[in-house]
Protein backbone atom coordinates (compact mmCIF):
# COMPACT_ATOMS: atom_id res chain seq x y z
CA UNK A 1 0.00 0.00 0.00
CA UNK A 2 1.12 3.56 -0.61
CA UNK A 3 -0.38 6.92 0.24
CA UNK A 4 -1.86 9.00 -2.53
CA UNK A 5 -0.09 12.38 -2.43
CA UNK A 6 -2.19 13.95 -5.18
CA UNK A 7 -4.92 15.38 -3.02
CA UNK A 8 -6.81 18.66 -3.11
CA UNK A 9 -6.07 21.63 -0.89
CA UNK A 10 -7.51 21.65 2.59
CA UNK A 11 -10.60 23.79 3.29
CA UNK A 12 -10.31 27.23 4.85
CA UNK A 13 -9.69 27.46 8.60
CA UNK A 14 -13.12 29.02 9.07
CA UNK A 15 -14.95 26.17 7.38
CA UNK A 16 -12.78 23.53 9.04
CA UNK A 17 -13.20 24.90 12.55
CA UNK A 18 -16.93 25.39 12.08
CA UNK A 19 -17.18 21.68 11.29
CA UNK A 20 -15.07 20.79 14.33
CA UNK A 21 -17.30 22.89 16.59
CA UNK A 22 -20.46 21.18 15.28
CA UNK A 23 -18.86 17.74 15.62
CA UNK A 24 -17.78 18.61 19.16
CA UNK A 25 -21.34 19.65 20.02
CA UNK A 26 -22.49 16.27 18.73
CA UNK A 27 -19.84 14.56 20.88
CA UNK A 28 -20.99 16.53 23.92
CA UNK A 29 -24.59 15.46 23.31
CA UNK A 30 -23.50 11.84 22.88
CA UNK A 31 -21.77 11.77 26.27
CA UNK A 32 -24.65 13.65 27.83
CA UNK A 33 -27.05 10.96 26.66
CA UNK A 34 -24.88 7.96 27.49
CA UNK A 35 -24.01 9.16 31.01
CA UNK A 36 -27.53 10.01 32.20
CA UNK A 37 -28.11 6.50 33.50
CA UNK A 38 -25.16 6.76 35.90
CA UNK A 39 -26.94 9.62 37.68
CA UNK A 40 -30.08 7.65 38.46
CA UNK A 41 -28.72 4.18 39.22
CA UNK A 42 -30.37 3.96 42.64
CA UNK A 43 -33.75 5.14 41.33
CA UNK A 44 -33.69 2.73 38.38
CA UNK A 45 -32.74 -0.15 40.69
CA UNK A 46 -35.61 0.61 43.03
CA UNK A 47 -38.33 1.23 40.44
CA UNK A 48 -37.44 -1.66 38.11
CA UNK A 49 -36.29 -3.99 40.92
CA UNK A 50 -32.79 -4.52 39.52
CA UNK A 51 -29.53 -5.79 41.00
CA UNK A 52 -26.12 -4.11 40.76
CA UNK A 53 -25.14 -6.72 38.18
CA UNK A 54 -28.11 -5.88 35.97
CA UNK A 55 -27.32 -2.18 36.27
CA UNK A 56 -23.70 -2.91 35.32
CA UNK A 57 -24.93 -4.65 32.19
CA UNK A 58 -27.01 -1.58 31.34
CA UNK A 59 -24.12 0.81 31.94
CA UNK A 60 -21.51 -1.34 30.23
CA UNK A 61 -22.43 -4.41 28.20
CA UNK A 62 -25.65 -3.19 26.56
CA UNK A 63 -23.99 0.01 25.41
CA UNK A 64 -20.31 -0.86 24.98
CA UNK A 65 -20.62 -4.20 23.15
CA UNK A 66 -22.70 -2.77 20.34
CA UNK A 67 -20.86 0.57 20.39
CA UNK A 68 -17.55 -1.17 19.71
CA UNK A 69 -18.66 -3.92 17.34
CA UNK A 70 -20.84 -1.62 15.23
CA UNK A 71 -17.97 0.85 14.98
CA UNK A 72 -16.16 -1.45 12.52
CA UNK A 73 -18.87 -1.76 9.83
CA UNK A 74 -19.88 1.87 10.35
CA UNK A 75 -16.26 2.94 9.94
CA UNK A 76 -16.14 0.90 6.75
CA UNK A 77 -19.29 2.66 5.56
CA UNK A 78 -17.75 6.04 6.43
CA UNK A 79 -14.89 5.25 4.04
CA UNK A 80 -17.34 5.16 1.14
CA UNK A 81 -20.44 7.21 1.93
CA UNK A 82 -21.25 10.70 3.19
CA UNK A 83 -19.88 10.94 6.71
CA UNK A 84 -22.03 13.87 7.76
CA UNK A 85 -25.14 11.94 6.69
CA UNK A 86 -24.02 8.90 8.69
CA UNK A 87 -23.50 11.11 11.76
CA UNK A 88 -26.88 12.81 11.28
CA UNK A 89 -28.64 9.45 11.16
CA UNK A 90 -26.69 8.28 14.21
CA UNK A 91 -27.61 11.36 16.24
CA UNK A 92 -31.28 10.84 15.41
CA UNK A 93 -31.03 7.19 16.46
CA UNK A 94 -29.30 7.70 19.79
CA UNK A 95 -31.48 10.65 20.80
CA UNK A 96 -34.66 8.68 20.13
CA UNK A 97 -33.24 5.68 22.00
CA UNK A 98 -32.28 7.91 24.94
CA UNK A 99 -35.87 9.11 25.11
CA UNK A 100 -36.97 5.47 24.83
CA UNK A 101 -35.07 4.75 28.07
CA UNK A 102 -37.53 7.12 29.68
CA UNK A 103 -40.47 5.04 28.46
CA UNK A 104 -39.10 1.67 29.57
CA UNK A 105 -41.32 -0.31 31.92
CA UNK A 106 -39.00 -3.25 32.56
CA UNK A 107 -35.39 -4.42 32.34
CA UNK A 108 -35.66 -5.82 28.81
CA UNK A 109 -37.02 -2.58 27.40
CA UNK A 110 -34.37 -0.36 28.95
CA UNK A 111 -31.65 -2.85 27.95
CA UNK A 112 -32.75 -2.70 24.29
CA UNK A 113 -32.96 1.09 24.46
CA UNK A 114 -29.36 1.22 25.73
CA UNK A 115 -28.33 -1.03 22.84
CA UNK A 116 -29.92 1.50 20.49
CA UNK A 117 -27.99 4.34 22.13
CA UNK A 118 -24.76 2.40 21.59
CA UNK A 119 -25.49 1.66 17.94
CA UNK A 120 -26.39 5.28 17.23
CA UNK A 121 -23.34 6.70 18.96
CA UNK A 122 -21.06 4.26 17.13
CA UNK A 123 -21.54 6.41 14.02
CA UNK A 124 -19.86 9.48 15.48
CA UNK A 125 -16.19 8.80 16.25
CA UNK A 126 -15.10 6.98 13.06
CA UNK A 127 -16.93 9.44 10.82
CA UNK A 128 -15.92 12.57 12.75
CA UNK A 129 -12.23 11.64 13.04
CA UNK A 130 -12.16 10.85 9.33
CA UNK A 131 -13.70 14.23 8.52
CA UNK A 132 -11.27 16.11 10.78
CA UNK A 133 -8.35 14.37 9.05
CA UNK A 134 -9.65 15.72 5.73
CA UNK A 135 -10.18 19.22 7.12
CA UNK A 136 -6.68 19.72 8.58
CA UNK A 137 -3.12 18.87 7.47
CA UNK A 138 -1.20 16.57 9.79
CA UNK A 139 0.77 19.36 11.49
CA UNK A 140 -2.49 21.06 12.61
CA UNK A 141 -4.58 17.98 13.23
CA UNK A 142 -3.69 17.40 16.89
CA UNK A 143 -5.23 20.67 18.04
CA UNK A 144 -8.44 20.01 16.13
CA UNK A 145 -8.73 16.47 17.48
CA UNK A 146 -7.93 17.69 20.98
CA UNK A 147 -10.79 20.19 20.72
CA UNK A 148 -13.11 17.44 19.46
CA UNK A 149 -12.10 15.10 22.29
CA UNK A 150 -12.94 17.87 24.72
CA UNK A 151 -16.52 16.78 24.09
CA UNK A 152 -15.94 13.75 26.34
CA UNK A 153 -15.33 15.78 29.48
CA UNK A 154 -17.68 18.63 28.60
CA UNK A 155 -20.49 16.19 27.82
CA UNK A 156 -19.86 14.27 31.03
CA UNK A 157 -19.72 17.49 33.04
CA UNK A 158 -22.95 18.82 31.55
CA UNK A 159 -24.60 15.43 32.08
CA UNK A 160 -23.73 15.59 35.76
CA UNK A 161 -24.62 19.24 36.41
CA UNK A 162 -27.69 19.60 34.19
CA UNK A 163 -28.82 16.05 34.87
CA UNK A 164 -28.45 16.58 38.60
CA UNK A 165 -30.50 19.77 38.46
CA UNK A 166 -33.23 18.08 36.43
CA UNK A 167 -33.28 15.09 38.79
CA UNK A 168 -33.67 17.39 41.79
CA UNK A 169 -36.43 19.28 39.99
CA UNK A 170 -38.46 16.29 38.83
CA UNK A 171 -38.09 14.54 42.19
CA UNK A 172 -39.88 17.44 43.79
CA UNK A 173 -42.65 17.38 41.21
CA UNK A 174 -45.52 14.91 40.76
CA UNK A 175 -44.96 12.04 38.33
CA UNK A 176 -45.73 12.83 34.70
CA UNK A 177 -48.73 11.25 33.01
CA UNK A 178 -48.26 10.91 29.24
CA UNK A 179 -50.97 10.11 26.67
CA UNK A 180 -51.00 6.41 25.69
CA UNK A 181 -48.02 5.81 28.03
CA UNK A 182 -49.42 6.53 31.46
CA UNK A 183 -47.51 7.57 34.55
CA UNK A 184 -43.71 7.70 34.43
CA UNK A 185 -41.16 8.10 37.23
CA UNK A 186 -38.96 11.14 37.79
CA UNK A 187 -35.85 9.45 36.38
CA UNK A 188 -37.75 8.53 33.23
CA UNK A 189 -38.67 12.18 32.68
CA UNK A 190 -34.94 12.98 32.77
CA UNK A 191 -34.31 10.83 29.69
CA UNK A 192 -37.18 12.49 27.82
CA UNK A 193 -36.09 16.03 28.73
CA UNK A 194 -32.51 15.40 27.61
CA UNK A 195 -32.95 12.95 24.71
CA UNK A 196 -35.47 14.69 22.47
CA UNK A 197 -33.82 18.17 22.28
CA UNK A 198 -30.68 16.47 20.98
CA UNK A 199 -32.46 16.01 17.65
CA UNK A 200 -31.65 19.68 16.96
CA UNK A 201 -27.99 18.69 16.62
CA UNK A 202 -28.92 16.27 13.84
CA UNK A 203 -30.42 19.24 11.98
CA UNK A 204 -27.26 21.27 12.67
CA UNK A 205 -25.15 18.58 10.97
CA UNK A 206 -26.81 19.44 7.65
CA UNK A 207 -24.94 22.80 7.71
CA UNK A 208 -21.54 21.06 7.70
CA UNK A 209 -19.89 20.54 4.33
CA UNK A 210 -18.50 17.10 3.55
CA UNK A 211 -14.73 17.50 2.91
CA UNK A 212 -13.00 15.83 -0.01
CA UNK A 213 -11.03 12.73 0.93
CA UNK A 214 -7.27 13.15 1.11
CA UNK A 215 -4.23 10.94 1.52
CA UNK A 216 -6.08 7.70 0.75
CA UNK A 217 -4.03 4.52 0.55
CA UNK A 218 -3.57 3.06 -2.93
CA UNK A 219 -3.15 -0.63 -3.76
CA UNK A 220 -2.76 -2.64 -6.94
CA UNK A 221 -5.80 -4.80 -7.68
CA UNK A 222 -5.71 -8.25 -9.25
CA UNK A 223 -6.10 -6.77 -12.74
CA UNK A 224 -3.06 -4.53 -12.18
CA UNK A 225 -4.97 -1.28 -11.72
CA UNK A 226 -4.44 1.16 -8.86
CA UNK A 227 -7.40 1.46 -6.52
CA UNK A 228 -8.28 2.87 -3.11
CA UNK A 229 -10.88 0.14 -2.45
CA UNK A 230 -9.06 -1.70 0.33
CA UNK A 231 -10.66 -4.87 1.68
CA UNK A 232 -10.94 -5.84 5.34
CA UNK A 233 -8.31 -8.64 4.98
CA UNK A 234 -5.94 -6.10 3.40
CA UNK A 235 -6.61 -3.70 6.26
CA UNK A 236 -5.86 -6.42 8.82
CA UNK A 237 -2.65 -7.27 6.93
CA UNK A 238 -1.62 -3.61 6.97
CA UNK A 239 -2.18 -3.37 10.74
CA UNK A 240 -0.48 -6.70 11.44
CA UNK A 241 2.70 -5.60 9.66
CA UNK A 242 2.79 -2.68 12.08
CA UNK A 243 1.59 -4.64 15.12
CA UNK A 244 4.23 -3.26 17.47
CA UNK A 245 2.89 0.25 16.96
CA UNK A 246 -0.83 -0.44 16.58
CA UNK A 247 -0.93 -3.28 19.11
CA UNK A 248 0.37 -1.19 21.99
CA UNK A 249 -1.75 1.76 20.90
CA UNK A 250 -4.94 -0.36 20.86
CA UNK A 251 -4.09 -1.95 24.22
CA UNK A 252 -3.35 1.37 25.91
CA UNK A 253 -6.53 2.90 24.50
CA UNK A 254 -8.54 -0.07 25.78
CA UNK A 255 -7.06 0.38 29.27
CA UNK A 256 -7.80 4.10 29.18
CA UNK A 257 -11.41 3.53 28.16
CA UNK A 258 -11.85 0.75 30.74
CA UNK A 259 -10.69 3.03 33.53
CA UNK A 260 -12.62 6.04 32.27
CA UNK A 261 -15.94 4.28 31.85
CA UNK A 262 -15.68 2.54 35.20
CA UNK A 263 -15.37 5.95 36.82
CA UNK A 264 -18.05 7.61 34.73
CA UNK A 265 -20.52 4.80 35.35
CA UNK A 266 -20.09 4.18 39.07
CA UNK A 267 -18.53 7.31 40.55
CA UNK A 268 -21.86 9.05 41.36
CA UNK A 269 -23.18 5.91 43.07
CA UNK A 270 -19.90 5.42 44.95
CA UNK A 271 -20.05 8.99 46.25
CA UNK A 272 -23.66 8.59 47.38
CA UNK A 273 -23.03 5.29 49.15
CA UNK A 274 -19.64 6.17 50.66
CA UNK A 275 -20.04 9.81 51.63
CA UNK A 276 -23.82 9.87 52.19
CA UNK A 277 -24.37 12.94 50.00
CA UNK A 278 -27.19 13.88 47.63
CA UNK A 279 -27.15 13.41 43.87
CA UNK A 280 -27.20 17.19 43.49
CA UNK A 281 -23.96 17.56 45.45
CA UNK A 282 -22.31 14.73 43.51
CA UNK A 283 -23.41 16.24 40.21
CA UNK A 284 -22.10 19.69 41.05
CA UNK A 285 -18.66 18.63 42.28
CA UNK A 286 -18.03 16.03 39.61
CA UNK A 287 -19.51 18.18 36.85
CA UNK A 288 -17.26 21.13 37.65
CA UNK A 289 -14.23 18.81 37.80
CA UNK A 290 -15.00 17.47 34.32
CA UNK A 291 -15.76 20.91 32.88
CA UNK A 292 -12.54 22.44 34.19
CA UNK A 293 -10.00 19.64 33.95
CA UNK A 294 -11.20 17.90 30.80
CA UNK A 295 -11.16 20.78 28.30
CA UNK A 296 -7.83 22.00 29.66
CA UNK A 297 -6.19 18.59 29.28
CA UNK A 298 -7.69 17.85 25.86
CA UNK A 299 -6.87 21.18 24.24
CA UNK A 300 -3.43 21.60 25.84
CA UNK A 301 -2.30 18.09 24.94
CA UNK A 302 -3.33 18.55 21.31
CA UNK A 303 -1.72 21.99 21.11
CA UNK A 304 1.50 20.88 22.81
CA UNK A 305 1.66 17.71 20.73
CA UNK A 306 1.41 19.72 17.50
CA UNK A 307 4.20 22.07 18.61
CA UNK A 308 6.56 19.23 19.53
CA UNK A 309 5.62 17.35 16.34
CA UNK A 310 6.46 20.34 14.12
CA UNK A 311 9.73 21.10 15.88
CA UNK A 312 11.50 17.80 16.38
CA UNK A 313 9.56 14.88 17.83
CA UNK A 314 7.48 12.83 15.36
CA UNK A 315 6.21 10.65 18.22
CA UNK A 316 5.16 13.56 20.46
CA UNK A 317 1.44 12.73 20.47
CA UNK A 318 2.01 9.11 21.48
CA UNK A 319 4.43 10.09 24.26
CA UNK A 320 1.98 12.64 25.67
CA UNK A 321 -0.71 9.96 25.71
CA UNK A 322 1.61 7.60 27.61
CA UNK A 323 2.50 10.22 30.22
CA UNK A 324 -1.17 11.13 30.64
CA UNK A 325 -2.04 7.47 31.22
CA UNK A 326 0.49 7.29 34.08
CA UNK A 327 -0.96 10.39 35.74
CA UNK A 328 -4.55 9.17 35.26
CA UNK A 329 -3.78 5.73 36.71
CA UNK A 330 -2.17 7.16 39.84
CA UNK A 331 -5.02 9.63 40.37
CA UNK A 332 -7.67 6.95 39.83
CA UNK A 333 -6.05 4.71 42.44
CA UNK A 334 -6.21 7.50 45.03
CA UNK A 335 -9.87 8.47 44.54
CA UNK A 336 -11.54 5.64 46.54
CA UNK A 337 -9.00 6.08 49.36
CA UNK A 338 -9.91 9.68 50.12
CA UNK A 339 -11.69 10.40 53.45
CA UNK A 340 -14.00 13.05 51.93
CA UNK A 341 -15.71 13.66 48.61
CA UNK A 342 -13.94 17.03 48.30
CA UNK A 343 -10.52 15.36 48.35
CA UNK A 344 -11.74 12.54 46.11
CA UNK A 345 -12.86 15.07 43.51
Outline of the structure:
The chain is mainly α and 345 residues long. It contains 14 helices and five strands.
Radius of gyration, in Å, reads 21 Å
Share in β-strands: under 5%
**Total count of domains:** 1
For the termini, the CA-CA separation is 48 Å
Count of helix runs = 14
Largest sheet: 3 strands, antiparallel
Uncertain stretches:
none
- Give the % helix: over 70%
CATH superfamily: MFS general substrate transporter like domains
How would you characterize this protein structure?
74% of the residues lie in helices and 4% in strands. Strand 2 and strand 3 form a beta hairpin. It has 345 residues and is mainly alpha-helical. It is globular. Helix 1 runs parallel beside helix 4 and helix 7 packs antiparallel against helix 12. The chain has one domain: Up-down Bundle (Growth Hormone, Chain: A), CATH 1.20.1250.20. A 3-stranded antiparallel beta sheet has the order 1-4-5, with no helix packed on it. Strands 2-3 form a two-stranded antiparallel ribbon. The model has no long low-confidence stretch (mean pLDDT 84). The protein contains 14 helices and 5 strands.
Q: What structural keywords apply?
A:
345 residues, mainly alpha, Growth Hormone, Chain: A, three-stranded antiparallel β-sheet, two-stranded antiparallel ribbon, 14 helices, 5 strands, globular
Amino acid sequence: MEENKNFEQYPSNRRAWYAVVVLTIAYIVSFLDRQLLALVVEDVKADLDLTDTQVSLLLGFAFALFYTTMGIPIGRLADKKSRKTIIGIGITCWCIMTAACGLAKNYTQIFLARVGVGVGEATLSPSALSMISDYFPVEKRGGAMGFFNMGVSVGSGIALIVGGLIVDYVKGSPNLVLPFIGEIFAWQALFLYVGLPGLLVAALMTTVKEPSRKGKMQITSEDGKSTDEISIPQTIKFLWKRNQAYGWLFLSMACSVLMGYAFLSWLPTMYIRTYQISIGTVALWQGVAFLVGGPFGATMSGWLGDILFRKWDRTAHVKLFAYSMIVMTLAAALVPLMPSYQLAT
